[in-house]
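Can't paste images in this forum, so I'm doing it all in text. The chain is below; anyone willing to post the predicted structure tokens underneath?
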Amino acid sequence: MHLDSKQFIRALSAGALVALSALPQNIVAQTSEHVVSSADLQKATVDATQTRQQNLGALNQFFSSEKAQKALQSAKINPERVKSAVAGLNDAELAQLAAKANKAQSDFAAGSIDNHDLLIILVCIAALILIIVAVH
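Text version of the structure:
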């Protein structure tokens, strides 16, 4: 039995069509559900950038206060070095430290902690930032 090229191509095409028709339709549908639009990607990028800027602002404000400047100087930590190191943190580290700084400020404002405790927290956060940046 001899097969010529036309019969081979026909048989191959028929086999491919049978295989495609045997695939469940939901497999094809699932691939289109995972596509993310460029508008969604752009919105997520803008949101992440805004969150990062807010966290940077919160930490810079925390370290710019007069009490923070005095505490850092008394611990022999350069405040400018801390501020520049903050920018080198990744988003997760930045969010975590900003949350701690905001909590410390709100606890201080509410009277839950005193000046001494706030200064200790501030120096610990500054030291942690410098260590994280040094490790990277």
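The chain has seven helices and no strands. The longest helix spans residues 38-64.
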